[in-house]
User: Fold these one by one.
Assistant:
Number 1:
Amino acid sequence: MDKAVIDAIREKEQLPDSMTDSEIAKEYKGTYTAARAAVSLNHKPLDQVLADAMGKVFPFMKKKK
């Protein structure tokens, strides 16, 4: 399992830092949580995609940062 996926699982599941990467990989291998974490690395959340699209169509609706 990639280190980035393990870090995403650790963050989303709020796992303690004392849990090693190999323990996380062993426990979460092949689970929905691991798949969701892997997908989240490559894709923006749907609400962000919608906000970006609306910002292109209606520039005045862009959120100010």
Note: The chain is about 65% helix and 0% strand.
Number 2:
Amino acid sequence: MATRMDALTLEVVDLIGSVVARYHEEYERAAAEHALTGAQARVLGLLSLEPVPMRGLARALKCEPSNVTGIVDRLEARGLVERRPDPADRRVKLAAATASGREVATALRDSLDFAREPLGSLSPEERGVLRDLLRRMLGQ
């Protein structure tokens, strides 16, 4: 039996949807400025932080490993990513951002004004409360 959402819940859901849509639009635009798809930009952003096994990338992106292989192949062809053996288990391949890939990822992050500007209008305490509420919503 479905229950109807109250007006406040509907408004919050709509506002969250608007924030996500605006962030997604800006992210896609910023990625395109670097001749990347949104998925390629997300992978590059993850790999700029640390090398990640291919299966770990698939888990982080919530997609099939075969999808990640194609994305990494295209990034590798551009010299933004490289594959290397995992020192802990040489059977496992790690994907890692190259120096050029880290530069592109930094430029991409720096160009995401929408993600940064609205949060800048919140105090550190308000940002902490928002973070905590979002984590709670996600069960973290």
Note: The beta strands are 52-53, 81-86, 89-97.
Number 3:
Amino acid sequence: MQRTIDLFFKALEILLITLLSVMAIMVFVNVVLRYAFNSGVTVSEELSRYFFVWLTFVGAVVAFREHGHLGVETLVAHFGRTGRLICMILSNALILGCSAIFFWGTWLQYDINASMTAPVTKISMIWVYGIGLFTGAGMSLIALERLFRYLTGRVTDEEIAAFAGENLTIEQMAERT
């Protein structure tokens, strides 16, 4: 099962690379066309905006899985094991709540977004805003799995140390400042 999950997230990383690359190419070509030939590709402007939305929200799920979001290690580092576990449980419960609200809000807006079309490409706007369903569900599942492990005592000392920022090298800490 873990291998399947790892492959899924590897596919998401490839998707992120593809979205960023295509977005950069479209913007570059459009800039060259505008300045050199006084024209442009209108589809590229719209699609690059949509790709950026997808890049942001898919990237948020990948970053959450890799513990890449911002944390307050300075505060958490002062706590002992129990305090850190409590912080881990509270932060994931808060993330679960926010992700569930995000999913539910996207679900409620589904019919409205599905009925609207993009001005240039004429695609349904659910293809743009529907990413909230993926992001909300993905982050909720990750937070639920973590909460289950934390509450059943299946958390490792390495995970607790990582949560407090104790696993970072000097170079990694310097990157964060």
Note: The chain has a mean pLDDT of 91.
